[in-house]
């Protein structure tokens, strides 16, 4: 099966040896998104909530570049440097997704790239 590399300028450029997303068949594997402003490649200011909103906007941009939407995500992995922010994360996630919600894991980590507080990667399945 051929794989298609997904890229959009509406999300931060990859800062390592990876693609923003890879499509294989009707499944799209989205790399982790952190709260970088895609225009400046700098971390957004404003604390955890602002970072979470930007992270979801970046994830949404990659979904759209692949021909889908956040509502087609079937699995989301969220990485937080402080699990006491989980309630805020959950509330903000509810603003970007509709029921039925994707399967999800929330993982506490010691640190993330560029010192951000939140990152998420996902698997999206497009309609056939």
UniProtKB/TrEMBL annotation:
Transmembrane segments: none annotated. Gene3D superfamilies: RutC-like (3.30.1330.40). It comes from the Bacteria. Pfam families: Ribonuc_L-PSP. InterPro entries: RidA (IPR006056), RutC-like_sf (IPR035959), YjgF/YER057c/UK114 (IPR006175). Belongs to the RutC family. This is RidA family protein.
């Amino acid at each position: 099966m051929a794989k298609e590399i997904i890229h959009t300028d509406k999300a931060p450029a990859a800062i390592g040896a990876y693609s923003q997303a890879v499509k294989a068949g009707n499944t799209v594997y989205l790399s982790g998104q952190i709260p970088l402003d895609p225009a400046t490649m700098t971390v957004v200011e404003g604390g955890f909530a602002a970072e979470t909103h930007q992270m979801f906007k970046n994830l949404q941009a990659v979904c759209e570049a692949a021909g889908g939407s956040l509502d087609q995500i079937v699995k989301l992995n969220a990485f937080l440097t402080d699990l006491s922010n989980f309630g805020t994360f959950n509330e903000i996630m509810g603003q970007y997704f509709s029921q039925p919600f994707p399967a999800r894991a929330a993982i506490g980590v010691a640190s993330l790239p560029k010192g951000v507080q939140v990152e998420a990667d996902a698997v999206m399945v497009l309609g056939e």
